[in-house]
Amino acid sequence: MANRLKHAVLITRSGQPIPDSAAALKNKVTLLYFSAEWCPPCKQFTPLLKQFYEKAKAGGEKIEIVFVSNDKSEAEMRSYFQNHHGDYLAVKYGEDAHRELPRELNIQGIPTVTVIDTNGKEVTNAKDVRQAVFDGATGSKSVSEIILGWRKASGDWT
Fold first, then answer.
1. Could you give phi then psi for residue 89, rounded to 5 degrees?
2. Which residue of 15, 24, 65, 126 lies most exposed, with the fewest beta carbons within 10 A?
3. What DSSP string describes 2-21?
4. Residues of the chain whose pLDDT is less than 70?
């Protein structure tokens, strides 16, 4: 699965493809975020994830979030990504990784956010990651300490 993600076409929020997906994830704690615009709980969680990401980046943390859409069309995915998400990456809609990652990680519902290791294995419980994102976004816990724990669990993406 890590190869699937490393070789997937990742795009920026503006829709520009990233030339080297593996390089975009190198040395970063990587989170996958499964979500959709039509999902009310996602609409509540996405702003918290965006806030967490902005705090992490402002603190110099090496983190990347990759949005994997569960929207019904590419147009819906792009609208949601551009208008509501942080300045992170997404798997291009329709890519093999877009279709296969939810199945391979056994994603049962959305929103789901998970930390993966270099082999693409989930290294943290998704509920724990959601709680940590909430705690970091609201200031209950240090974003740096949260990411340090994830880095220890996920290893090095080189």
1. -110, 165
2. 15
3. HHHHHTS-EE-TTSPBPS-H
4. 1-4, 156-158
